[in-house]
From TrEMBL:
Organism taxonomic ancestry: Bacteria, Pseudomonadati, Pseudomonadota, Betaproteobacteria, Burkholderiales
Enzyme Commission number: 3.1.1.31
Family according to the record: Belongs to the cycloisomerase 2 family.
Protein name: 6-phosphogluconolactonase
One MF term in the entry's GO annotations: 6-phosphogluconolactonase activity
Keywords, in A-Z order: Carbohydrate metabolism, Glucose metabolism, Hydrolase, Signal
The species this protein was found in: Paraburkholderia gardini
InterPro entries in the cross-refs: Cycloisomerase_2, Haem_d1_sf, Lactonase_7-beta_prop, WD40/YVTN_repeat-like_dom_sf
Highest rank taxon of the organism: Bacteria
SUPFAM superfamilies tied to this protein: C-terminal (heme d1) domain of cytochrome cd1-nitrite reductase
Name of the encoding gene: pgl_1
Signal peptide: 1-36
Enzyme class: hydrolase
Length: 410
C-alpha cells in the first residue's frame, strides 16, 4: 500500500510524509450518522429536505432537492444544482454544506481522467444549493464520501477503472467556509482477487468509521479485504496508521462493498457485491470478526446479482440491503439483539432496474429507493413492527437516481 502526503496542508512527522508500502490510511466519519439523524427531533410538520444524487450521462443535470413529507410519503421538487455524476452525497453536521463525488471518467472515459469532489453551500430552509468549489479526487471514479468525527476532513473512495495505480482512498481538509481543500493524503491498496475483469486490481468502494471514532474501515472490492486504520487527528502518530490486524480477509471473489454499524456499536454488517451476501461482524477496539454470512438471493436463483447498499432501520431492529443484477430487490432481515445475527424477513421488488442506493426516513415510516437504470424512485411504506414494505409504493420519475440524503430543514 502506498501513501502520498501533501505536507503543506497539515503538520505530520517527516516519516509519515514519506511514501510507504504497506497499510496506512485514515480519517473519520461517524458511522452512526443514520442513528444520530433518526434520534433527532422530527420537524413539527414532518417535512424533510431530500437530496438526490444522480448519474448525468442522460437527462439528469446533477443534484435534485425535494421536500419529503413523512406524513404522506410525497416528494415535491424544490431546486437542483448542475454537477457531473454526483453519485454519492454527504451532508455536514451543521447541515450547511453538501459534498458530492464527480464520478469520472465513468465506463466510457479515458483511464487517465481523474474524478472530482464538489462542495456546495446548503440552506435547509429554502432547499437551495450554491456551488463553492471543486478539487481532484486524486483517483478514478470516486464513489463514496465520509466526514471525520471532528468535521475537519473528508474521505473519498476512488473505485478506479485504471489498473495503475488502482483503487485508492483520499483525504481532504474541510475549510471553515465549507470549501474542500486539495487532498492531503492518498492511499493505494495493492493486489487484487480471482475474478478477471472485476478484481484485476484494488477497488476501494467505501470508507466507514467506527462508532467510537478511533478507526476507519476501507472496503476493497478488488482485494476481498476490509482494511482497518487508526485515526489520530492530533498528529501524534500521523493522521492515519495501520492497526495490528491490518485487514480482514473475505472469501475470494466476494467483493466487499458497504459497511454499516449497529446502534450500540457492538456489531457491523457488510455487503459483498459479487457474492450477493451480507455478513454479521463483531466489533471491538478496531477489530472486526466474522460471525455469520447469509445470501441475499432466494434458493435456486440463477440470474446475475450485485449487492449494493445496506442500511438499518432507525430503531436498529432491521437491516435492509439492495441487490441488483437480475434480482432488483430490497432484502429485509431482522436483527437478533442478543448476538447481532440476521434472520431473513422477506424480499421486496424495487419495481425497476439497478436499485443502487436507498434511504429510510428518520421516522422509520418510509423506504426510498432509486432504480438507476429505470429513471424511477419508489417510496415504500414501511411496517415498523414487521420490517416489511408495502407492495404498492408511490412512484416518482427522476433520471438515473442513485443516492438519497434526508436533512431536517430547521
Amino acid at each position: 500500500m502506498h501513501f502520498r502526503h501533501r505536507a503543506a496542508a497539515f503538520a505530520v512527522p517527516l516519516s509519515a510524509r514519506s511514501i510507504i508500502k504497506g497499510f496506512v490510511l485514515m480519517v473519520s466519519i461517524v458511522a452512526t450518522q443514520a442513528f444520530a439523524q433518526g434520534a433527532a427531533a422530527v420537524p413539527a410538520d414532518g417535512v424533510y429536505d431530500l437530496l438526490v444524487g444522480t448519474y448525468t450521462a442522460g437527462k439528469s443535470e446533477g443534484i435534485y432537492v425535494y421536500r419529503f413529507d413523512t406524513k404522506t410519503g410525497d416528494m415535491t421538487p424544490v431546486s437542483s444544482a448542475k454537477t457531473v455524476n454526483p453519485s454519492y452525497l454527504v451532508v455536514s453536521g451543521d447541515r450547511r454544506h453538501v459534498y458530492a463525488v464527480n464520478e469520472l471518467p465513468g465506463d466510457n472515459g479515458p483511464a487517465n481522467q481523474r474524478g472530482g469532489i464538489s462542495a456546495f453551500g446548503f440552506d435547509p430552509q429554502s432547499g437551495q444549493l450554491t456551488f463553492l468549489n471543486q478539487v481532484s479526487s486524486e483517483g478514478n471514479d470516486p464513489c463514496y464520501l465520509g466526514i471525520s468525527p471532528d468535521g475537519k476532513y473528508l474521505t473519498a473512495a476512488n473505485y478506479s477503472i485504471a489498473a495503475d495505480p488502482g483503487g485508492s482512498l483520499s483525504v481532504f481538509p474541510l475549510r471553515p467556509d465549507g470549501q474542500v481543500g486539495a487532498a492531503v493524503l492518498t492511499v493505494h491498496h495493492a493486489g487484487g482477487g480471482p475474478v478477471k475483469g472485476r478484481q484485476d486490481n484494488a477497488h476501494v468502494h467505501s470508507t466507514v468509521f467506527s462508532p467510537d471514532g478511533h478507526y476507519l474501515f476501507a472496503q476493497d472490492l478488488g482485494a476481498d479485504k476490509v482494511y482497518s486504520y487508526r485515526y489520530t487527528p492530533d498528529g501524534s502518530r500521523g493522521l492515519l496508521g495501520p492497526t495490528e490486524t491490518r485487514y480482514m480477509t473475505l472469501k475470494p471473489g466476494s467483493g466487499p462493498r458497504h459497511l454499516v454499524f449497529g446502534p450500540d456499536g457492538r456489531y457491523a454488517y457488510l455487503t459483498s457485491e459479487m457474492a450477493a451476501t451480507v455478513d454479521t461482524l463483531r466489533y471491538h477496539d478496531g477489530k472486526l470478526t466474522l460471525l455469520q454470512s447469509v445470501p441475499l438471493t432466494k434458493p435456486g436463483f440463477k440470474g446475475a446479482v450485485g449487492a449494493a447498499a445496506i442500511h438499518l432501520s432507525p430503531d436498529g431492529r432491521f437491516v435492509y440491503v439492495s441487490n441488483r443484477g437480475d434480482a432488483n430487490e430490497i432484502v429485509i432481515f431482522a436483527v437478533d439483539p442478543a448476538n447481532g445475527h440476521l434472520k431473513l424477513v422477506g424480499h421486496q421488488s424495487s419495481l425497476g432496474a439497478s436499485p443502487r442506493e436507498f434511504a429510510i426516513d428518520p421516522t422509520g415510516k418510509w423506504l426510498i429507493v432509486g432504480n438507476q437504470s429505470s429513471d424511477t424512485v419508489y417510496v415504500f411504506r414501511r411496517d415498523a413492527q414487521t420490517g416489511l414494505l408495502d407492495a404498492n409504493p408511490k412512484r416518482f420519475d427522476i433520471p438515473a437516481p442513485v443516492d438519497f440524503k434526508l436533512v431536517a430543514p430547521n
